[in-house]
Design a protein that fits this description.
InterPro entries: 6-hairpin_glycosidase_sf (IPR008928), Glyco_hydro_76 (IPR005198), Mannan-1_6-alpha_mannosidase (IPR014480)
CATH architecture: Alpha/alpha barrel
Protein name: mannan endo-1,6-alpha-mannosidase
Order of helices and strands: HHHHEHHEEEHHHHHH
Radius of gyration: 20 Å
Distance between the termini: 21 Å
Number of domains: 1
Catalytic activity: Random hydrolysis of (1->6)-alpha-D-mannosidic linkages in unbranched (1->6)-mannans
Enzyme class: hydrolase
Keywords: Glycoprotein, Glycosidase, Hydrolase, Membrane, Signal, Transmembrane, Transmembrane helix
Shape: globular
């Protein structure tokens, strides 16, 4: 959500929401400054932590104003997440990879899924790009290679099919054949950064194209013209949950960035973003105010509404305005967020650490941020169709 608002600031120059974005990031940092606050220990996934790191990276790459005070720099926060997650690499099963959940007592700890491993891959690739540090690039290669050797990846006819999760209890010998836009988005984003970091390595270009080819087959159905994005796994049956109702936002935003990092993809990607944006805007006619967006972009409003639906429409429409002037910055190209390779280290950052009880203040603070976030996204949707 807050990464979408950073993009909104980049696209429009509107600073209205910047203070709330900074507040949200600061609230989530936690005592070890790695987006793993104790009040989230009972539901902290590796992917949850990664998405906050993505937002910090968005901020660093955009020269978004630093929070100041005692808050670490945006890039240092992402580095702290990377440092923390390195300790989550688990080669006791499946030859490596990371589990979905940070803590053993959380449901799903047995799964090794794409969004957690792919999220870590993206963080490493973006840190390599921003800092120029080969250590991050080496880790990104390690993560890609493990995923490519696992059942999560399946290559056929030049298309990469990316599946959702595999079970460490079975030593990752099987796979859940679910395909989601955000899984494709996170792998695409990481591969695009690696292509750029390696000065156009053909291996990474081929990987970018194989992801795009797979995404085209799965998420841009020919029956809707071949250019309008669809979350085919749940949209036709209208059973997308709240998370799934936001997934197209990530693929939209990350496809747009890919056009800047891998220019050869521009002519393939932009027609899809343009058609999807037009379709999304056309169906944002629901609710009492006539401005609510649904999940399905290839039809009239589908009677669904929510933060995810609004964020998806906001993201894909904003993505069509991307231009080289807002390409991700690095230390070589004017990035001002100050690095800290040891961020988060030297603190009690172990995933097994004892957690303090969740307090009433913690719950109240989380509720306030949720309400603020919902209000902002709904307000942002008004901009979409004005």
């Amino acid at each position: 959500m807050f990464g979408s608002l950073i993009n909104y600031w980049q696209y429009t120059g509107d600073t209205s929401y910047n203070p709330v974005v900074s507040q949200a990031l600061a609230f989530q940092i936690g005592p070890d400054e790695n987006f793993n606050p104790p009040n989230q220990s009972k539901n902290m996934g590796v992917d949850d932590q990664a998405f906050w790191a993505f937002t910090a990276l968005d901020a660093a790459e955009a020269n978004f104003p630093e929070a100041g005070g005692n808050i670490p720099s945006w890039i240092a926060l992402a580095q702290a997440v990377f440092n923390f997650q390195q300790d989550l690499w688990d080669d006791t099963t499946c030859g490596g990879g990371m589990r979905w959940q940070v803590y053993q007592f959380n449901p799903g700890y047995n799964l090794k899924n794409t969004i957690s491993n792919g999220g870590n891959f993206q963080i490493a690739a973006r840190l390599a790009y921003y800092t120029g540090n080969q250590t991050y690039a080496d880790w990104a290669v390690k993560m890609w290679d493990w995923m490519a050797s696992s059942p999560l990846f399946q290559t056929q006819d030049g298309n990469l099919y990316i599946w959702d999760n595999t079970d460490s209890n079975n030593n990752c010998t099987d796979v859940a054949h679910y395909a989601w836009t955000y899984n494709y988005g996170t792998m695409l984003m990481g591969a695009a950064y690696m292509y750029n970091y390696t000065n156009g390595d053909p291996t990474w270009e081929q990987r970018v194209m194989s992801i795009l080819n797979g995404a085209e087959v799965l998420f841009f159905p020919k029956e809707y013209g071949g250019n309008v994005m669809s979350e085919f796994q749940c949209e036709p049956a209208a059973n997308c949950n709240n998370d799934q109702s936001s997934f197209k936002a990530y693929l939209s935003r990350w496809m747009a960035v890919t056009t800047l990092l891998v220019p050869s993809t521009h002519d393939m990607i932009m027609p899809k973003l343009t058609a999807s944006a037009a379709a999304a805007a056309q169906q944002c006619t629901g609710g009492n105010n006539g401005r609510m967006c649904g999940r399905r972009w290839y039809a009239t409003w589908d009677s669904s509404s929510g933060v995810g639906q609004q964020m998806q429409a906001l993201s894909v429409i904003g993505a069509t305005t991307i231009h080289p002037g807002i390409a991700p910055k690095s230390v070589k190209t004017g990035g001002t967020s100050k690095e800290d390779p040891n961020a988060g280290n030297g603190k009690d950052a172990s995933p097994i650490q004892k957690q303090k009880p969740i307090t009433t203040a913690d719950k109240a603070g989380a509720a306030i941020l949720t309400i603020l976030g919902v209000s902002i996204i709904v307000g942002g949707s008004i901009w979409i169709i004005m």
